[in-house]
Write a structure and sequence with these properties.
Blueprint: H1 9-17, H2 28-39, E1 44-50, E2 53-63, E3 73-79, E4 98-100, E5 103-105, H3 109-121, H4 123-127, E6 135-140, H5 148-155, H6 157-163, E7 166-171, E8 179-183, E9 185-194, E10 198-199, H7 209-230, E11 243-251, E12 257-258, E13 261-270, H8 277-298, E14 305-314, E15 317-318, H9 324-333, E16 339-342, H10 348-352, E17 358-360, E18 375-377, H11 378-396
Parallel strand pairs: 3-6, 3-7, 7-17, 8-16
Antiparallel strand pairs: 1-2, 2-6, 4-5, 5-18, 8-15, 9-13, 9-14, 10-12, 11-13
Pfam family, one: M20_dimer
Protein name: Acetylornithine deacetylase
EC number: 3.5.1.16
Length: 404
């Protein structure tokens, strides 16, 4: 690191935005820069390259306690990847931070490099504290797609070892610094109906895949309505029950052909108290029986049938309100009425599965995430720095000299 190395949250955000760390593209330059930055403040670091791809990685960095211990303490975690800005009509270059009227614009400014910049800006001060417990900083990859980074990090030997005795983890998605203690899970599914293509005038020569797909859509919408009517319900969410949304239907290419394949993509977003697998079991039973009917009805044609698979999942998250982590954050923010639930998903469910307390709390408004001219306000960035530093001192010990 040189004398030109940025230290303020604003300048660190400028640096982080300059790395176009779009999901499924290399993030290693960003990870290596952050590692060197934190090592300059004597953090113990480990870069974990993605399985089978050395261009993407997680970073674990730890400020040891005053005895050199690396286990327990507090984790501040955030993802390093961003969604693409391609095709969006930005007023300024998306990977060059621009300041206008108290707002800091750039891809990832809100989701979630603003939080990362705030955390990194505290490195010097944290390194000078006499910590009773360690403080950890995590950066992950591919949160915006399959969340593979956090899955690998919490399963890694270092991740498991550092979490022993941990008081909690703050995941810094944009919440306007409100404390999110629960969110829904999301499970993506794909249904496939295979028929036999033929000219539309030759009905007996083919079997239309759209017929079974239509039955599946009817079943999905009926199940959706049943959930909305009968629950279960959980207060605190804008939509207080599990939802099911058939969102994509693809079948057929021209008017005068019998469709040989039709697919339906849909998601299930469950409240934490509702098991999404019971809906998956319902749908698998329906599709299995339907497949038997299609095979019989399409005979003597071969290869026709239906199938269902789950293609991706993000577990729901339901945290404890009465825990040291929440109490410290509320004391640091000097707010009591700031506990909320949200519909969007984060890495929190995977971290919670390790057995530690987790909250989601970070600067910026989720409405800005992924948008053209994405921004975070300087006010939110400053508040995040202040709240995090006080939370660190409350949970990890030491006395801060900061005037943030």
């Amino acid at each position: 690191m040189t004398q030109d190395t940025p230290h303020s949250a604003t300048e660190l955000l400028r640096k982080l935005i300059s790395f176009p760390s779009v999901s499924h593209q290399p993030n290693m330059p960003l990870i290596q820069w952050v590692e060197q930055y934190l090592k300059s403040f004597r953090a113990v670091t480990e870069v974990q390259a993605a399985a089978g791809d050395p261009t993407r990685a997680n970073l674990i960095a730890t400020f040891p306690d005053k005895h050199g211990g690396l286990q327990g303490g507090l984790v501040c975690s955030g993802h390093s990847d961003v969604v693409s800005a391609e095709g969006q009509p930005w007023r300024s270059p998306p990977y060059v931070m621009t300041e206008r009227d108290g707002k800091l614009y750039g891809r990832g400014a809100c989701d979630m490099k603003g939080y990362l910049a705030a955390v990194l800006s505290l490195a010097k001060e944290v390194s000078e504290l006499s910590l009773e417990r360690p403080f950890h900083i995590w950066l992950t990859y591919n949160e915006e797609t399959d969340m593979q980074g956090i899955k690998e990090l919490v399963a890694s030997p270092t991740g498991r070892e550092r979490l022993q005795g941990c008081l909690g983890c703050i995941i810094g998605e944009p919440t306007s610094m409100q404390i999110v203690y629960a969110h829904k899970g999301v499970y993506f599914h794909e249904y496939t109906s295979i028929g036999k293509g033929a000219h539309a005038a030759l009905q007996t020569s083919g079997y239309n895949a759209n017929q079974a797909a239509g039955e599946m859509l009817t079943h999905l919408f009926a199940l959706q309505q049943d959930i909305a009517t009968n629950g279960p319900f959980e207060e605190g969410y804008p939509v207080p029950h599990t939802t099911l949304c058939p969102s994509m239907v693809h079948g057929g290419v021209v008017y005068n052909s019998i469709t040989d394949k039709c697919t339906i993509g849909f998601d299930i977003r469950n409240i934490p108290s509702d098991d999404p697998d019971r809906y998956y079991a319902n749908l698998r039973t329906f599709v299995s029986a339907q497949n038997d009917r299609v095979v019989k009805a399409s005979a003597p044609l071969e290869g026709c049938g239906t199938s269902l698979q789950r293609v991706e999942e993000v577990p729901a998250f339901g945290g404890r309100v009465d825990c040291a982590l929440v109490r410290a954050l509320q004391a640091a923010s000097e707010e009591k009425d700031n506990l909320v639930k949200v519909n969007f998903c984060t890495e929190a469910g995977y971290v919670q599965q390790t057995g530690i307390d987790v909250v989601v709390c970070g600067p910026g408004d989720i409405a800005q995430a992924h948008q053209v001219d994405e921004f975070v306000t300087e006010e939110q960035l400053i508040k995040c720095c202040r709240v995090l530093l006080k939370t660190i001192t409350l949970l990890c010990g030491g006395k801060s000299k900061s005037s943030i």
